[in-house]
Amino acid sequence: MSAASIDAPGHAPSRAWLLLLLRARTFVALILVLAYFSWAAPNFLSVANAVLVSKHVAINAFLAIGMTFVIITGGIDLSVGSVVGLTGMITGWLVLHGIDPGFGWSIQFNTFEIAAIACACGILVGAINGLLITRFNVAPFIATLGMLYVARGAALLLSDGRTFPNLNGNPEYGSATFPLIGTGQMLGIPVMIWLLALTVALSSYIAHRTRLGRNIYAVGGNERGAALSGVNVRRVKMFVYMFSGLMAALVGIIIASQLRASHPATGEFFELNAIAAAVLGGTSMSGGRGRIGGTIVGAFVIGILSDGLIMMGVSSFWQMVIKGLVIIAAVVIDQLQSRLQARVALAQEAAG
C-alpha cells in the first residue's frame, strides 16, 4: 500500500474501527456461540448444563493459561495433553499403591502429597522440554512433539494400558479427600473453579506486574534484543515450559479426581483446545502479544462450542474439523490484526 493510500481521507477511521473489531473478536465470538446454542439447544442455558460447561471450561483454561505464556515467547507446547495423561496415571498409582521401595513395605501419601508429587512430575517434563529447546537448540515444535510421544508412552507403561479404578483414597493414609479436588465444593462453588480463579490471578500478576512477565513479552517480541538488554532468555523459556507442565499436571489431577479413575489415554488432543483458546483470546502465534484475560474468554468460547456441538448431536469427527477451522481462522485473523496495526501505526507516524 502506498503512502498516498494510507493517508487517503476515510481510510484511517475505517481501519481504526476494523482494528477495534479484530481486538474484540473473542467477545464477539463468545456472544455469537452463546446466542446460537441458546437457540439451537433448548436446555443449553439450564443450571445443570451451565455447571457442566464451567467445569469443561476450567479444564481448557488451565492448559490455555500455560500455553499462553509459551506462545508469547514464540514457542509451542504440543506435549500438554500427554502430560495430562501421564500425571493422571501417576496420581492414580500413588492413590492405589503409594511407592514400593522393594523391602516388603510401601510409602503412602496423603492427598496434598499426592498432588504435590504429580505437579512436580509435570514441572519436570516441562523442564526437559525447556532444556531441549534452550540447551540443545531443538525447535519447540519438535521437542514438544517428541515429548508428546514419550509422555503418552510412559502413561501406558505405568499400567500396561489399563485403567486405575476406584481412586477413593484411604482414610488411614489421609488420601480419602482426593475425590474432593474434582468434585468438592466450597461456598457452593466447585473447588476446581476456586483453583482456576487463583491460577488466573497469579498468572495475570506475573504477566503484567512482575519483571518476569515483562521479560516473557520481551523475549517473544524480539529475542535477540531482549538478550542484548540483559534478559536471561534461557531462564524465561525454562519458566514458561515448566509452568505449562504444571498446568497440565493440575488438569491430570483434577480429571483423575472427578472420574475417580485414571486412564492413560486421558488428555488426547487437549493441546488443540489449549492452542485454540490462547490464539482465539488474542495471543499471537508469532510471539510478543497475549493476555490471560483474553485466553480465559477464548477458553469459554472453545468450551461452549464443544458442549454445544455435543448437545446438538454433532459427530466427534465433525467436532475435530470445526475446532481445526477455529484455530486456522484465529491465526488468520491474528495475522490480519498484526498487518492492520502496522498500517495504522505507519499512518499515524506519517500524519505526525
Automatic annotation (TrEMBL):
Matches recorded under Pfam families: BPD_transp_2
Cited InterPro entries: ABC_transp_permease
Membrane topology: Multi-pass membrane protein
Highest taxon in the source lineage: Bacteria
Keyword Lipid biosynthesis part of the UniProt annotation: no
Segments crossing the lipid bilayer: 16-37, 57-76, 83-99, 111-132, 139-158, 178-207, 238-257, 292-310
Cellular component terms per the entry's GO annotation: plasma membrane
Localization of this protein: Cell membrane
Keyword entries, A-Z: Cell inner membrane, Cell membrane, Membrane, Transmembrane, Transmembrane helix, Transport
Main location per the UniProt record: membrane
MF term (GO), any: transmembrane transporter activity
Presence of keyword Translocase: no
Protein name: ABC transporter permease
